[in-house]
Amino acid sequence: MNLTIIKNFSSLNSKILFIPIVLLLGMTVFFISENLLIDNYYSFIQKDYFQWINKELSNYPNLIYNLTQFGDVLIILSFLAVFIVYAPELWKGLIPSILISGILTPLFKNCFKVPRPAAIYDLSDFTIIGKTLKGYNSFPSGHSTTIFTVLTVIMIAFMPQRTINKIVWCVGVLLMAYILAFTRVGVGAHYPLDVISGSILGFICGILGILSYQKYKFWHWINNKKYYPIFISLFLISIIILGVKIYHTQLLIFYISIVSLLISLYTIINAYVKK
Prior knowledge:
single chain; 275 residues; mainly alpha; globular; transmembrane; transmembrane helix; membrane; Phosphatase PAP2 family protein; cell membrane
C-alpha cells in the first residue's frame, strides 16, 4: 500500500493545478468585477437554487446532519487514523494539505466577508438543521474545502493504473465529495456557489499538499515508531472531544468516529509495544 501511494504521489504533475486555479481566480474576479459581493447581490442571485436544494435535502434531516459532519477535520480524519500504521505515506500528504487548507480558507473568508443565508434570507423561507449560522464568512464553504482537500489526497494516493479504472475511481470519489459538500446547503449553512468554490479550493489544497510531499521530507518522522506516543496522545484528545460532541449532540457519526479512533488507538499502541 505504501509503495502504491509513493508512486502515485511522486508521479503527480503540478500542471494539474492550472485549470482549478484559473477557475477559482475566474470566479472571484467575476464576482468582484460584476459587484456581486456588494449589497448582498451574491446571495439573491442564488436564492432559487439555494431554496430548491435546501428543500430537497432537508427532507432527510438526520442523514444530512450526519453527513455534513465529514466537513469537520476531526471527523473525516478519524476514519483515516489507522493509516498512520498501515500507510503512513498517506498522512505525509494529508498533513500539509490540511495545513494549507487551514491557511487559505480563512484568508478567502476574511477577504470577501459574504453573509451566510441565515443572515440574509427570511428564516421561514428555508430549513436550518442544527445550529443557525449568521456570520459573514460564507464564501467559500470551509466544510466543502476540508472534504475536497482530504478526498483529493485519497483519490491521488490510491489511483488505479488502468485508464478505465482511473476514470471510474475519480468519478466515484468526486461524486462522493460533492454529495457530502452539498449537505452544507441542505443544513442551510451555505449557498451553492460557496460549495463549488470550496470544492475547487479544496482540490487545490490537496494537490499543493502532495506537491510539498514531493519537494520536502519534513514529515518523514511519521514512519518512525518512536513518535507514535504523539499520535496516541492526539487520538486520546480526539476521543475526549468527540465525547463532548456526543454529550451535546448525539449524532451517529460521532459514535462511529469514536469507534474508528478506538480501533486506531489499539492498532498504534499494539504496533508501538512491539517495536
